Amino acid sequence: MRSQQRKETCITKYRKILQNEKKADIKDITVLEHTLSAGSCIKPNLKLFEEYLAAQAEVAADLTWHYNETMCNQQDGTTTPKVPLHCKLRLSAFINQQQANQLLINRLKKRFSQDDVFILGNWSASMTQFHEPIHGKGWRTLLKRGRFNVYLID
């Protein structure tokens, strides 16, 4: 199910495009982002927080330039204004997600009748580090939006 969702929403494709764009920049953006993530932004430890703010001030201009000025390529030959690449990919991913959800609802309507009941369990897994999140609430709202009978077993 997850691999089908990834394929329909093009998430992996968009992630690769963004990673390649970061590496193609004059300054390696991933290195700048890693310098920020290496620091501590926790406020109670004042010394580490000051170091984090100093590192953020150093890389802020480059990161802002990259995320605002990286434009998408216009392949249709029109004179439409260029859009930042990150905004375009985010919007495309959102639209693809909505289409994939509607496609799933349509497939379920073909397979099941309106009188069928979906029963979902409310459970939480232990040791969830490095695991994908459980889409319990998302699946329930998606199925309810598709006008299916959904019940939650606690």
Which terms would index this structure?
154 residues; mainly alpha; two-stranded parallel sheet; 6 helices; 2 strands
Structure description:
The protein has 154 residues and is mainly α. It has six helices and two strands. It is flat. The mean pLDDT is 80.
* Amount of helix: 55-70%
Classify the secondary structure makeup into a structural class. Answer: mainly alpha
Number of DSSP helical runs: 6
Uncertain ranges: none
**Mean of all residue-level pLDDT scores:** 80
Tell me how many strands there are. Answer: 2
Question: Quick gist of this model?
Answer:
The chain has helices at 2-9, 11-24, 29-38, 46-69, 85-111, 136-145, and strands at residues 117-121, 149-153. The chain is mainly α.
Please describe the topology of this protein.
Elements: H1 2-9, H2 11-24, H3 29-38, H4 46-69, H5 85-111, E1 117-121, H6 136-145, E2 149-153
Parallel strand pairs: 1-2
